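Input for the complex:
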Amino acid sequence: NAGVTQTPKFRVLKTGQSMTLLCAQDMNHEYMYWYRQDPGMGLRLIHYSVGEGTTAKGEVPDGYNVSRLKKQNFLLGLESAAPSQTSVYFCASRLAGGNIQYFGAGTRLSVL
Amino acid sequence: GENVEQHPSTLSVQEGDSAVIKCTYSDSASNYFPWYKQELGKRPQLIIDIRSNVGEKKDQRIAVTLNKTAKHFSLHITETQPEDSAVYFCAAKGSRNRDDKIIFGKGTRLHILP
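Predicted:
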């Protein structure tokens, strides 16, 4: 039981490049979330999903897209990376009707 | 939507003393209040939580209190130790519908001084 796994752990992009961050959970959780963490800003919700095939916008969705084609996976895409997207990205998941949210180890992204 | 305010942003206490971190929330429908600890370079991990039908919960040196009327809740750490140094996040979760989200405060960086 690996919990919540994020890949990659680190990535450096040039402005304008695209990439996809993968989040996988093996706990059969319905809800999945993508956050970004910046100094002094806490954890800000980018997008989330309450089930396979559904996604919704969070607080800071601009510049990102997501997909939840399988229940266990939640993908975060950057179509044209900008320096403002330099951050640490965390994925999280929880059971529908549950409270405890489990986090992945994070992805540190730098956009030059 | 829900808004969570957390204070202070930085807190330094002498080892062995107590630390208190305070949070307020805006949505009266929120019914679950977790606290997460994040050590440097690590993921946030749940350390204690409280539901809205309880006023206080304690787990060894950590306690959380909730005042629903005033819409604020606090984390109390007693007999602080060096390993308590970390960033602490409070959060609140509503119960309005199946899209209820956990909203986090901006975090408090706790330094335990030797």
